[in-house]
Write a structure and sequence with these properties.
The protein is built from 9 helices and 10 strands. By secondary structure, it is α/β, with parallel strands linked by helices. Strand 4 (100-103), helix 4 (109-119) and strand 5 (125-129) form a beta-alpha-beta unit. The protein starts with 30 loop residues before the first strand and ends in a 19-residue tail after the last strand.
Length: 294
């Protein structure tokens, strides 16, 4: 069996099992930076007891504005075995969290799937990803994940190439989301409003890029009926990109951009989801990556 990694759309083909590094800069064993109850997700994920969130290190995108760059690009974290990862999931579940929330684990999908089979959890598993995934890799998770929470970052290939080095992102992420919906079907909430199954799509509005937000709202409206998926439109952008190289990203959203995006969403007919307050654009939402729970 080949050990050449083809897990993500980059298809680097490197032998990570023997230490070679591809775009994600990660060897084969999962690297985890934090595993703890987290309250910074949407209400249907965080609830009152928190989401049992496992932050994985490394990433197959390296967005220039990433808030988690310490781990996504810097790679900070601790390598763990599949068995230890399964234990981490179980230990979090024992803290009475509402779900197990796997953040940016795409490049470890095969090992995560093994750990989920070992853990045999009785609470929902949330796949919290960039959306830059292949249909084939997502099928490794079928029956193991109950909630998909992908980003849909761009509708523009030009923006995707400039900010994430992935000009194929728009069509790739849309195909991934359609596969996620094929696996999950229409979303369902329990009596407390917690998401038990389904797809919650996130879009972070970037300054000066309202057209991406409008196009994504249109795409969701055209491809899903009103009770199919949820949408979280986020305004929490913080200008962390290199301001010399990306001067257009050197500011937060304006009140006018915020209001226009909100109005477009309300007119779209999409009824299920969230629109984040403009005041959320602070660095306080960034968790401490200190190996808690690892």
């Amino acid at each position: 069996m080949s050990t050449n990694c083809m897990l993500c759309p980059r298809k680097c083909g490197v032998d990570r099992e023997n230490g070679a590094l591809g775009f994600c800069r990660s060897a084969a064993d999962p690297v985890v930076a934090r595993a703890a109850a987290h309250f910074g997700e949407e209400p249907c994920i965080s609830g009152s007891c928190g989401s049992g969130t496992v932050f994985f290190s490394g990433c197959n995108l390296h967005c220039v504005f990433c808030q988690n760059r310490t781990i996504s690009i810097g790679g900070y974290g601790k390598a763990v075995s599949v068995t230890r990862l399964a234990e981490i999931f179980t230990e979090l579940a024992e803290q009475d969290v509402h779900n197990i929330n796997l953040v940016t684990a795409t490049h470890f999908t095969d090992k995560v799937a093994q750990a989920l089979r070992q853990a045999k959890l009785d609470i929902p598993v949330v796949w919290n990803s960039s959306g830059y995934e292949t249909v084939e890799t997502l099928r490794l998770l079928e029956g193991l994940v109950q909630v998909y929470m992908p980003d849909l970052k761009y509708s523009s290939a030009e923006a995707a190439a400039r900010y994430s080095g992935a000009g194929d992102y728009p069509e790739t992420a849309k195909a991934a989301i359609l596969e996620m919906y094929r696996q999950m079907g229409d979303f369902s909430l329990d009596s407390e409003g917690l998401l038990q199954r389904g797809v919650l799509i996130r879009h972070l509005i970037l300054p000066g890029r309202l057209d991406d937000a409008f196009d994504i709202i249109d795409w969701i409206s055209e491809h899903f009926h009103k009770s199919a998926v949820m949408l979280s439109l986020m305004s929490q952008y913080v200008p962390l990109a290199d301001q010399a190289r990306f001067p257009e990203l050197a500011r937060r959203l304006t009140e006018d951009e915020y209001q226009r995006a909100q109005s477009y969403l309300f007119l779209s007919g999409i009824e299920n989801g969230y629109f984040q307050e403009l005041s959320s654009a602070t660095e306080e939402l960034i968790p401490s990556f200190d190996l808690t729970g690892v």
